[in-house]
Every structure is written in C-alpha cells, then in structure tokens.
Amino acid sequence: MIKKSLHIVFPILLVFLFAFAAAKINNQADSFILQSKQQRFIAGKPITLSFSSTSKTANPKLFLIHTYGKTVLDSQNNNGQITFKIPAMYCLKTGVLSWYLIQDETKITNGSFTILPNDNTVTKIENYLGPPSLLTGTDHFTMMVAIPTDKFDNPKQDGTEVLIKDQFLNDITVTQKTTKSFIAWKNIYSRTKSGKMLLSTECNNTDSKEFETEVKPSIGEDFTIDFSRNHSFADGNQITSLTTSIIKDRYGNLVGDGTLVTFQVVTNENVLLKTYASTINGVAIGQLLHPDHQDTFKVKAYITGIAQSKTISIPYLPLIKNFKYTFTEKNRRITVGPVRSFMKQLVPDGVKVELKIFRNEELLETKIVETNKGIATFILLAPFYPEKEYQFEITTLGITQKTDTKQYEVN
Amino acid sequence: MAKEKSNKYLIVALLIGVVFHSSAIFFTLESTYDALIHMFFAQHYATSWFEPWNYSWYTGFTVMGYPPLVHQAIGLLSLIGGLKFGMFTVAIIGIVLFITGVYRYTLMITGNRTVAGYAAIVAVFSSSFVETLHIFGQLPSIIGVSVLMHCMPEIYLWIKNGRIRHLITSFSLLAVTITSHHVTPIFGMIFFIFPLIGTVIMDVAREQVNSYKEIKFKLFLTTFFKLFKRIVAFGAGSLFLIIFCIFPYWVNSKANPITQVPIPHGSRDNFIEVNSSGLMFFVIPWGILFFILPYILYRYYSKRYICFGLSISLLIVLGTGGTTPIPLKVLGETAFNILTLDRFTLWASIMSLPMFGEFVYRLIEGDLKTAIQNRFGNVYHRILGALFAGSFLFFAGFTITLGYFRPFQPQKINTLPLVNFLNQDQHDQWRFLPLGFGDQMATLSSQTKAKTVDGNYHSARRLPELTSRAIERLENSKFRGMEGIGSLQQFLTVPEKYNLKYVFSNDKFYDPILYFCGWHRLSLLENGIMVWEKLNVAPLPKVLPKDEVPLYLKLMWGIIPVLTVILAFVINIQSIFFKALKIKDEVKPDFFKFVVPYSKFPFKIIVILHLWIVLLLGVIGYGIYQSYLFNASQISPTNVVKAYYDALDFKYYEKAHSFINPESHLSISQFMLETSVADGILNSYAKLDAIEIKVIKSGDKRATLVAKTKWITPLEIINKDYYHEAVKQKGKWYLVPNKQPLDIPPDQFLANNSTEYYKQGRRKITTQQTYHEDVLKQPELEILSAKLIQYKGEYIIIGELQNIDNFPADVVLKSTLYNHNDKVLATFNAKDVIKHKIMPKETTPFKVNFEEISWLNKGVSQPTTFNPNEYTPKDISETPANFDIQSAGNVAITDFYIQVALSDLKIENNHLKGTLFNYGIQEVTVPELLISYYTDKKELLYVDHYFLREGVRVQRKQYFDYKMLDLSSCKIILSSLENCYVNGLPNGNLARTIIPNRDREVEKDLLQKVDGKGFSFIKIEMNNYIGNPK
Asked: What was the pLDDT predicted at B410?
C-alpha cells in the first residue's frame, strides 16, 4: 500500500518543487541600471562601472572584452549599489572595451566605452626607417615611419602632429605630418650627391634618436683607361698596369669602392686574356704580365652590363731578334744562349726555351727548359736517344730557329 | 672445518689491479673510443633522468637505444663530483668487479683457491682487459661481463642443489648484467651459461659414478632430465629478466629498427690483409694467451669442461672476423654486419683466464714445474718462466701505452672556447658541426646545449643522408672516402635544411670544401679551432619534433636499472660480508668437490706446447722478414720512387731526401724549401690513395719512370703523372731531383691597395636581438640568365648572376624543378660551380646539379673507389616542365680575391692551355676556373669547373691544361627568367631601378671564340681560395 501512495505523492511533490523554483528565479530578475554614463576614459585613470539594482543581494558578474583579452569580474553589492573595478592593466590600454552584465549565466545588459590615449603623460615615439641605404638620383627614397605614443605605449590619436626632419650636407628639411591609422610617415627622396643622411622625428617636444641612411653612388658611367709600364719589350716578366679614369656615376659621384672592373685583352691571335681590379676612389688598377713574344694587346675595360671604356692598344716589342746555340759532347749537349735582352743584359731567369726533337721530319718529343743566367741546357742521353740522326727546332721569346740534322754515334 | 684464511693472491691482485689501472685510466680513458660517448649519455641522464629524448645529436634521438645502467650510474655520481669523477669511479668499480669476478669464476671452474688467486692476478694484466678498458673504453661491456662472472657460481649452485636462495642471487646479478650491457647476457647465455649448465650436469652425473670417464651420453641425458626443471626455471626467469629489465629498449628497437647501411668495423676485416685490424682485434686481445692455446684447449676439452671447450672453440673462430668465411656463415649476413666481432675474442680470452691461472700455478709451483725441471733442468725452467712473465707484462705494457705512441684520437681539444662561443650571441640557436674532433665531439656535446647534425652513436642516426651510408660520423668523413666526403658535401651545400650555421674545423683538410660550398671563416678560437660560418641560415625553431614514448616506459627506464643494483646489493651483501670478513664459516660450495689433482703434467702437452710456440715464432719471424723485404726501398728504380712518395705522403722529408741522388748535392734544407714552397690542393690538402709506377726507358744505371699517382682531396680525386729519373750509385738506386721553376717575380717589394670591409653586427652592446636599424639591406642581385638543360641524362640549371649593389655579397642560390602539374621534382643549391662571394658589379656563372641522397635505393651498388666529386644525380623520372630560382644576397666581408689575371692562353687540340698570374699579395691556394660554354648564337649552354692542382704564389705564374667538353649532346630545355627571385622579390623589378638600361650586347664581347664540339664560345673566370689569409 505504501508503495502505491508513493507513486501518487512523488509527482505532486515534484510539481511543487518546480513551481517554487521558478518563482524564486522570477523574483531575482531585478533591474540593473548603469549609473556611470561616461563613454570615454583616459588611459591610466582608474575606471569603475557602477549599477544600481533593486536587489540588495544580487551579485552579477561583468564579462569584459578588451584588446588585452577577455575576463570576468565579480561584483560587490553595497545596498543595491553594484560596482565593478576594471583591472588596472585594462585601464592602461586604449581601445574599445565591451562589457556584458551577467546574472545566472544570462546576459542582462551590455554596453561599451572607449579608452583614449593619455595626452597628459610624456609622449614617446617609435620609429622605423628603411631601407638603410639608397642610391643617388631622384627616384630612390627611404621611408621614415613615426608612431607617437603616450607613456603607456598607446598610439596617439589620429591627427597628432609629428615633425619629420632630415639632414643631408647643409640641407636640413623639417616636414610636419599628422598621424593616420596611428602612424605618420614620409618618403625622403635621395639626392644626387652620395653621402650620409641623418633623420629624426619629433612629437610634442619629444625627440627621437638619430637615424641614418647612406646615399650610395649609382652605377658608373663610361670611362677611359690608360696603361703604364717599365719598358715596352715583351720579356714575359715585367708588369703593365692598366688604370681607369675616375669612374663616376651620372651625378658625378665616385662609384662605390670595390666596384669590379674587368680588363679584357685581345691579342694579335684573337685570344682573350683578362685581369680584374676593383675600384678605390673611383680608380681601378689592373695588372698584366708582359707577353714573352712580340704582340699588340688591345685592351678594353668593362663594368659588366653597366659601363665600358674605349679600346686602347699596347704594343710590345720583341726582346731579341735571334739567339745562339751550340752542340757539344758529341752533339749530346745542346746549350742555348746566352740569351741577351735589349741592353745586352742576360734575360731574367725563367725564360722558357722549347726544344722540339724530330727524326725524319716526325716530331718525337718537346722539351721545355727555363733559362738560368741566360742559358738553357738540354742533354740527350744515349740510352734514350739511340738513333743516328735527329733534327731540332728551338723556340724562345717568340723566335724559332731550326738546326741542321745532327749525327750521333751509335754504340 | 677449519676457518678459511683470506686469499692473499686475491688481495694482491686487487691491490695491484686497483693501483695500476686506476692510475692509468686518468691518462688513457679520455682518449679511448667509447668513454666520452658514455660520458655524454651520463650527462643526459644527469640533466633529464626520465626523459629519453635527446636533441643534441642528429636531429634528436632516443637514449633508449642503449642499456642505461652505466650511464645512469655515472650520471648519479656526477652530481657529487662532476662527470669525470663519475666516469672514473665507475671505471674503478668495474676494475674491482672484473678482478673479483675472474676469481669467483675460476674458483667455480677449478675449485682451487690458489689457482683462482693466480687467475685474479693474471686477469689484472690480461691484454684483452687492458685493451677493452684503456683503448676501447667499453665500460658497460666490462661491467656486464664482470657481473656475469659473479653470477655464474650462483647459477651453478642453483642447478646443482636447487636452493631457491641461489636462484634469487643469480637473478639479481643477471639483472644488473642486463641493464648494463644487452649483448653480454644474450650471448653470455650461449657462450657462458649453456656450457656452465653442461658442466653442472656433468658434475651431477659424476656423483653417480666413480670417474668422469664412466659418464656416458645416456647418463648425461638422464641427469639432464633430472635437472630439467631447475634449468627451465632458470632459463624462463632469465628470459623474462632480459625482456623486462630493458623492456623500453626492446620497444624502441621494434619501433626504430636498425635499417642503416652497416658501418665497416675493423673486427670484420681479413686480419691477414689488414694488419692493423689484426693487431687490434686479434693479436692484442689474445696476447700471450695465444702461446698456451693448446693447453687451454686441452683442459677445456677434458670431459668435465667439454661444453666450455666447444664454446671457446666457437668463440675463437668467430673472433677471427673476415679472415675465415666461417663467422659470416655462422652468424648470417645481418648479424655479421651489425655485431663487432672483437667481443668474441674478448670473451674467449676471459674464458681462458681460469686455465691461464691454472697454467701459471702449475708452472710456478705445480707439476709443470716439476716436469720441466726433471726433464730440462732448473735453468731452463727459470729462463722459460722469466721469458713467459716478461712477455706477459710486455704485452700489457704495450697495450696500455699503444694510445700514447700511436694516438687514436686527435690531440686533446680544449673545449672551453667552443662552449663560450656557442653561448655568445645566441650562437646556440643554430646547429653546429665539428670536423676533425674524433670522439671528443661527445665531450663538446656534453658541455653545451647547442645541437649538432652529427653524432657519435651511429645506431641512433635518423637522417637518411647519414643512415644510407657507411659513415660513422661526418666529423671524420675523410676516412670514409667518397661516401664520407659526399655526405659532408651535401650537408655543407644545403645547410639551411638542417639549420646548420657553424662548423668547427680542427682539420685543415676540410677547408677548401667549406670555402667552395660558400662558407667563410669567422674567427680562429684560442684553442686553434677555426670557426666557419654560413649566411642565410634560419635559426632552429623554438619547438623541435620528438618521438614521444608512453609514461610507463619512461618510468621503467628510469627506475629499473638502479633498482637492480640496489636489489643485487641487498641480496648479495650478506654473503660478501661473510666471505670477506670470514665472520661465519660458510659451507664450501659444491664445486670444491670436483678439484682436479695437479699431480702429473702430461709430457705430450709439454711437447705440443713447445711445437706450437716454435710454429708461432716461425710465423712471426716470417712476417718480420716479409715486412723487411717490402721496405727494401732502393733495390730497383720502381721501389725507390714508391718509397719516395710514401715518405712524402707521411711528410717524412728527411727520409724522402735520403732517396735523392747524393751526387746532386741537394742539401736537406734546400730540399725542404723546394718541397714546401709549393702550396695548393695537392701539397696541402691531399692524401695519396694509390700509386702506379711505370718504367718508360731504362738503362743499366739510369731509368726514366712515370709515377701515376691518385690523390684524395676534399674537392675531387686527382690523377697526376710525375716523371722521374733514377740513377744507380754504388748498387743503390736514387732519384735525380726535379728541376725547380727558375721564374723570378718582377718585384722585390710591392705595395697593394684594396678595399676591405667590416660589419659591426650589433652596434649596441646588448644581448637583445639585433636592432632593426643595424640590419643591413640585403645586396641586390640580378639573375642575368637561367636555363634548364639536359646533359648526359641529367637535368641541370645553369645561368649567370650579378651583384648590382654597392655592397659585396654572399650568394646563396637554390633551384627547384617542377613537372607540368607544378609538383616539386627536385630541389638543390648551387655547390661549387658558382662564386659565392662577389664584389659589387661582379658576375658569376652558376650551375645547380640535383643531387640525390646517395644510394638511398638499396639496389644501387655503391662504388668502391673514392671520388668526392662524384654524386648520385637525382633520378627524375618525369620531364621537368618548369623551374624556379631563389637567390639571396647577404653582405659578405671576406674572401674576394680577384687579383689573378689570365695572362696567356693557347687553344689547341680541344685543350685550353693557359697561364694564371697572381699580381696581388696573397697566395692563392686553390684556384678554380669556371668555364662557361656558349652556342654559336652566344647563348649560355653549360658551365664547368676545374680546380688547379697547384696554387699561384704572389707575382708568379701557374699553368693549367683544361680539356674542353663534348657538348654535342647538351640541350637547352627551357630558358626563362620568369620564376627567378632575388631576396624574395621577382628578379629584375628592383634591378631596373638600379640599372635602367642594361647593355646585354657588351657581355658578348667577353666571349672567346673556339672551335668546339657543340659550342662555339667560352668564357673563363677565376674563383680563388686563399688557404692562409695574411
């Protein structure tokens, strides 16, 4: 019997319980009225939101959305006066702060207000400059960007005046710009002279540090070349220096140090030789070894694809007209020389002497010996050259001499 | 039962052993092969005990690949007195464990305390132990085998008597063995424990009959079945322990199976062919033991020990490595290539120690002494004994000092400047690569947080660039021939892939390859290590990938090993105390019942021993005679040339000079001067690989020869023929000195002006990142032409590039090939066919070869010859439809030496014969020619390079002879600048603001007309490497 009565009583009890609970919630739906109507706050000042409520016990929560992030604040109900203190960190940062008053997980009311930069604090200024180097001319520019901020690193409101200053030689320019989307910027155009440009900015009597950008010379213009040398003989030992004129860009600035110049040589045989040099103060000096035979070098210099010189011609005179040679020790020792140079002095050591050995007009071997004190010696050992007769061709310093057929003893 | 006295021999052995070894390890251990690696692992455990992932090596690896006990022990002890303290302490513990282990093992084998004492003494000086500790530094192996020897008497007693106490003690000790070295218990089961079980069965059977002779196979079998339960209990338990104690290890080996190409190891060589391996892995570990091998075999083949006999025979054979084909057949290909076979010799020699102790005992105070004295007299016995003892001690001394006389490692490096360098300026945000450090790279790694792409535990390698080759480390890649240098070149060419920015070079050998791959010298540290840097490499990401393992594995790995030691200590401490302090009379263990009486030494064994020793001495004598003949250098012209080159290769100049004809009156100082003036790739960076000498003409007293030499250099293989004349003087052949070039530089004194550069980096002294205003603009480059070509079946990107900025530039150039669907086919960087450092307005040709990670495909056979210049071209099955080039310039400040002129050129027979002349004031060590080929329409067709063999000294000439290529099969597939980028921006956009009107026609003036196969014009440019900038 008890069981049965339970079946009836329990649902009734439940109905009562729900009805009561609903009544309680309805009672709590108090009204909350925002009391502080201020819509704009200044960064750095404490911000408090207060609500008046009909309930003296309700403790709603305030949900905040701010650039720093989202958070939920608890309230204090002081006799129907509900206050929320916005965290100090949020008060420092400018931007829109949206709030939602929440009671029992339901939004009751919401609103938003703006925090503005604090113009009463010291202005700070943040700068970006780039590129740090430019070329001379009228098309290239560097961009100076200034972001004035308050003490709390909040960008100033749009329309804040910023002075952008640049100095180049005696020329100092000050431009007034206003910030837009937080930044004030200016393109500072390059000059026709190379050098260092210094830049700075100013806002509300706050000055930035010094920034710099280099104005570098543009590409070089065509130039001329010249040569100098010790003597004009083709001794294969001395050096000919090739010098460019001062290479300048179209505005008359010296091209950047280190600019590579290629000196190209065309010989009489249409062979291309080359030497490289990099400029110092606009001048590049390349060096070239004298040829070891009569030749005329046609030299032209290039900055590849950019500038070039006219061709100059450098003639080299032959060092010798002919030379002596002797056969001794049963023709097995061939002594070439002494080879004498233009003043009858012995040629410098290391002049190449080439001996071509023929037998019946057929080239057997080429031997190369360098001169020592003007003399080069070839030895033909009997075991290695067993034949009866050989012919020879001797070449040095561009002169070739053919010998008679020489007879050899056969063991 | 009378109280036992302390065994004085054991005490002597311990005292001598500890004093001898522990004073020696301070001089040897740090230059051994393995000790520093163990120290690195210890450092890992000391800093992160439960975390198995280590970022320092490779691109991160797990330490679960090696049993941790020894490393953890060092790590724990390091908390007291530093890593080295930990390592030395563990080594000393290992020494004590080894000596006592040998004692207990011998006691079990022989049942004679005096013999066991003798064995302990000889164990101290046993050359295999000395080698393992002082040359190899294998601490885990030593501790593993020592504890195993401690364990064996317990196993014996368990199987013999079935007391559960012995089972527990044996398990506790076995667990320690397992956690210190995994291979030891696994093979120990086969080689030590199986024969031990056999011996126990033999002993139990012996108790049922009157002598060992009466034991027949049937009895043996029935006894075996009687003991079967105990054996199975032990076997199952130890199998469980092997799996459980290092369970994470097994999980890891399953997850990361060793799939890498086997690393060659000396123990797998044929010892007769490779004598050095024979010495290290056979002669030294056996040492004097080999002389009494017949005795050892005789004893182990007596019936009681027959199972040990079989085991030691197998060990001896397996230890011969590749000398006989048997080890390969027994172990199978895989095991043969993974295992180092020297451990078999080590175990064989350790197994021999009881018999060695017994032999010494019998020789000194036993029946052998009597037998010899009776037969040969007292004097003979004394001489024999003295010789025996002398050569035994000599072997130990020889082994321990081997590392001193013939260092295995580069000289000790002071790592402090390196550690400081890495800590400075956030240098540890990039990976580094040590070169030429030997195993000391592990020391460096244990001292810094910075990471390296290399590593010193090759089983853990993960990058396919490393696992696909048989190279242990990149660090010593020059010893690994083509594979090593090839691998290194790939790391150096594409360093951004690995965030590799710094190379620490302790070996000049690698300098040219670093330069030509675009690296530059940063600074010489105070310890003589050169730091090389590469620009345009991004730092490591903040979060690095790692393989996570479950928590339970981490806990097992961190807890079990130390727990096994604690348990073993608790379980065994009682009996150790009793034994050591003789507090209580312990029952004599059963094996004392089976003592062999040393009453009459069989005479035939003495005879066999004598014959064996005579045979061995004969073989040794023959070997010495052979080596004498081999070294007789002046008996023929061929020999003298060969000897001369050998001497030069090892830089034995005095010896080389002694082969020069004395009648030429060439003084040694002049000879040295002439040899050393020539710098260049051959003289400074080459190793002679092969030499073949041919006689061209020969007479009685005179001969002309050509030495066809093959040199290994870091850049390429060089074949060069040297012509020599040899003369015979007083029965000996000598070389006629080659004539030195007589050319004289024009100026005695010269002045040179050049532009030099300096980069401040951060102008403010701060640890912050570089301020944006200190960041230099990237130099502007322009790609002048870019082409995709096909040559010899390979797709190649070529082109030309110019630095159009006012700043000198370091150029990194990366190219990618795409198919029709814009799928990436291949990507690679320009390696050495480009000038990486270019002056303002300088141009350079470039070539990008798409290299495959070599031999990634197993089927492709690896070339046996070495050629670092050779690589595997990437197999691009699809035809590339498009390509792109990403080039980046960064401000460079060094390595622009341009003062080399092409001062003469002859074009004949398809050869370019020219002369370079250096007019500057730096000696060019390795000149590289970049030869661009052009079509008849003066369109770029191909780019080739050529390294000159010799350097160009100041104001001097150098001749080259370059054979032009046959390019008739080379075709241009695509020529386009469309997808070329400079510093991330499209090529040309910015360039047109710098050079509005580029004159492309002028470039065509610079081409040399030639009559070539498939081409009509060429251009020669020079790229000069200065080895020693002044």
From this structure: 80
Structure tokens at A165: 């200053």
Q: Does A209 touch chain B (CB under 8 A)?
A: no
Range with lowest mean pLDDT among B148-152, B394-398, B633-637: B633-637
Q: What does the pLDDT average to over B32-58? A: 91
pTM: 0.86
B901 and A276: CB-CB below 8 Å? yes
Say whether both B233 and B118 belong to one domain: yes
Q: Which of A292-306, B648-662, B682-696, B861-875 has the highest mean pLDDT?
A: A292-306
Q: What is the pLDDT of residues B528-585, one digit of tens each?
A: 899 999 999 999 998 888 888 899 999 999 999 999 999 998 888 777 766 666 666 6
User: A130 to chain B: which residues are within 8 Å by CB?
Assistant: 772, 777
- Asked whether the predicted pLDDT for residue B310 surpasses 70, the reply is yes
Domain count of chain B? 4
| Cβ contact, residue pair A350, B743, below 8 Å | yes
Q: In CATH, what number is assigned to the domain containing residue B661?
A: 3.10.450.100
Closest to B558 measured CA to CA, from B27, B191, B91, B48: B48
Q: Do A306 and B999 touch (CB under 8 A)?
A: yes
Residues 264-303 of A with CB under 8 A from B: 264, 270-280, 285-289, 291, 300, 302-303
Amino acid at B894: T
Contacts of A212 in chain B (CB under 8 A): 773
Structure confidence at residue B864 (pLDDT): 42
Nearest CA-CA partner of A241 in A282, A283, A292, A271: A283
Give the mean model confidence (pLDDT) for residues B286-308: 89
Q: B425 CB contacts (<8 Å, ≥6 apart)?
A: none
Length of chain B: 1030
> Same structural domain for residues A329 and A403?
yes
Residues in chain B with CB shorter than 8 Å from the CB of A131 are 777
- State whether B198 and B62 are in the same domain: yes
- Comparing CB atoms, the residue among B899, B919, B998 nearest residue A305 is B998
Quote the domain boundaries for residue A203. Answer: 124-216
| Contact across the interface for B840 and A287, Cβ inside 8 Å | no
Sheet with A61-66, side-by-side order of all strands = A40-42, A106-116, A95-103, A61-66, A69-73
Are residues B976 and B907 part of one domain?
yes
- B164 to chain A, any CB pair closer than 8 A? The answer is no
| Whether B802 contacts A304, CB under 8 Å | yes
Task: Name the residue in chain B with its Cα closest to that of A373.
Answer: B742
| Cβ under 8 Å to A: B residues 679-738 | 697-699, 702, 704
Give ipTM to 2 decimals: 0.82
CB contact under 8 A, B907 and A258: no
Q: How far is B849 from chain A, CA to nearest CA, in Å?
A: 26
Can you tell me the mean pLDDT for B106-111? Answer: 88
pLDDT of B783 higher than 60: yes
Q: Is A340 on the interface with B (CB under 8 A)?
A: no
- Pick from B143, B169, B134: which is nearest to B67 by CA? B143
CB contact under 8 A, B1007 and A272: yes
B392 touches B122 (CB < 8 A): yes
**A69 pLDDT band (50/70/90 cuts)?**
confident
Q: From CA A16, how far away is CA B24, in angstroms rounded?
A: 93
Pairing of strands B926-934, B1017-1025: antiparallel
pLDDT in tens, B840-892: 999 999 999 987 654 344 444 444 444 445 566 666 677 888 999 999 999 99
Q: Are residues B438 and B462 in the same domain?
A: yes
Q: What is the pLDDT of residue B73?
A: 94
